[in-house]
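Here comes a specimen:
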Amino acid sequence: MTFHILRHNPQEPQSRPQMVTYEMDEAPGMTLFIALNAIRDEYDPSLQFDFVCRAGICGSCGMLIDGRPGLACRTLTQTLGEEITLAPLPAFKLIGDLSVDTGQWMRGMSERLETWVHGQEEIDLDRLEAPMEPTLAEEIYELDRCIECGCCVAACGTALMREDFIGAVGLNKIARFRLDPRDDRTDADYFELIGDDDGVFGCMTLLGCQDVCPKDLTLQTQIAFLRRRMIATG
């Protein structure tokens, strides 16, 4: 296999973006995560990329794989060609090579949308929480499966053009908290946060976010529902 990796370390003044090529033999069941570790161990220990869980749960290893956002730990090399091009996810601050700071973007989005339960009463730690209907709990859990990997943001045309766009990940969080009976906010409160071109009306319905989501979330369905609900409520 031949890997073409876009490399650049913004911390080094002399560094300039460049494609660096590495060649190696493919092993059975090899993932991009395994291949990148082999490149770093055998060829270049300075290669930067992120990983934690190796199981598609943490979202750390998101990158552009032949121009398409994806997770290195979930991508088998046998599903790709003999020549593979890797680059960092766009829309996020570059740390170095294939490593980007998704955490700063996600935290800013969460603070802006206040993605936590808003309750009017103080929490009584000695009192059991009210039971929730299993079907509702399943609906909330489905939206909670987002791992904030940043793939949907990197695949979004609006997010790449407008840095204030909250993206599918932010709209998915709003959809999740609308369902939560513990949250006292109304639709008007939610729509005040997302009811403009930086929110639900900024989506161009390109389906890129849903196409690349590693957890197969119905992101476009949620965005369409929020848009219709907002129009219906005036």
Summary: The chain has a mean pLDDT of 94. The longest helix spans residues 219-232. The chain has two domains: 2-100, 114-232.
